[in-house]
Known about the structure:
With 273 residues, the chain is of the alpha/beta class. Helix content is 47%, strand content 14%. The chain has 11 helices and 8 strands. It has a 4-stranded parallel beta sheet with strand order 2-1-3-4, with helices on both faces. It has a 4-stranded parallel beta sheet with strand order 6-5-7-8, sandwiched between helices. Mean pLDDT is 91; it is low at 1-6.
Amino acid sequence: MEGKAQRRVPSVFVVSDALGETAELVARAAASQYPRDLEFRRIPRVKDEQAIQSIVKEASEQSAAIIYTFILPHLRDAMRREAEGKGIPTVDVMGPAMEALAQVTGEEPHLEPGRVYKLDEEYFRRVEAVEFSVKSDDGKDPRGLLEADVVLLGISRTSKTPVSLYLAQRCHKVSNVPLVPEVELPKELWSVKRERIVGLTIAPEQLLEIRQERLKVIGLNPTASYADPARILMELEYADEVFRRLGCAVVDVTNRAVEETASQVISIIVRGG
Length: 273
């Protein structure tokens, strides 16, 4: 029993001097051929040998393999040397491919980590927008309200999160704030320009159906207060009051697809409220 208790899931360290997406894709593709679970840990933007030593030391303390993509030769050499010294299996995803291309082209590589992404500025903007929107989802980081391109407000189940992520995929940084009558609004909200705030509302009948279905999915009584018609009307009235106080535009999401709502939000922001 003691041996089983100490048994750990094998780890795959995905290490890169850029984002590490290529190495992780290779690692997960290989792992799909094995029935046993593996724990993946991506470590991006590794820039020096000291960081490599620390990573290898941690990997040596467990059952782990290291899959890496380093553009700079001295980092590839350091990873190979340190891992061999600890007996850790490694895969150099980028090195052999670069060496083969150098032979057929007769040219030296640029040796710029992350160059593939620098060719596409929109990619970076999208990644930044998605990370921002996830971090700022459901009012988790009120400080982000002042940095957001769009601030969405609405009571529960008015599509705030789906619309936020849809907009983020189109490079818009979005914060969304849940409106709950018993919870004070974040003070930062009052400093956001009205033109960047959009309220989301919905017909009470449709919201009732959505909330009842949600309660069923999570195994709760569909007659709970969350799906009480009187409570829903009270929340919608509170939201309308907040929208009036802020002077913001409002989008009715009733029977609207996420992309339709997102399109209307963008139109509001473009024309300035």
